[in-house]
Specification:
The protein has 2 helices and no strands. By secondary structure, it is an all-alpha fold. The protein has a domain of 36 residues.
Length: 58
Amino acid sequence: MSDSPAPAEAKPSFVKLAMRNMVRKGRQSLFHFGLTAVGFTGVLLLLAWFGRPSVPGA
């Protein structure tokens, strides 16, 4: 016999918890998503700018 009872239901997955949190805090989640998207785009643009090829005579 085991001392620990069997769980009645499985723990919700990370995706389900994230979706529930996004519904609960909709505006804040969208704001943070927007900041992340702008920041990521900025990093990509900076990398493209610093990694651009130098064309002689142009």
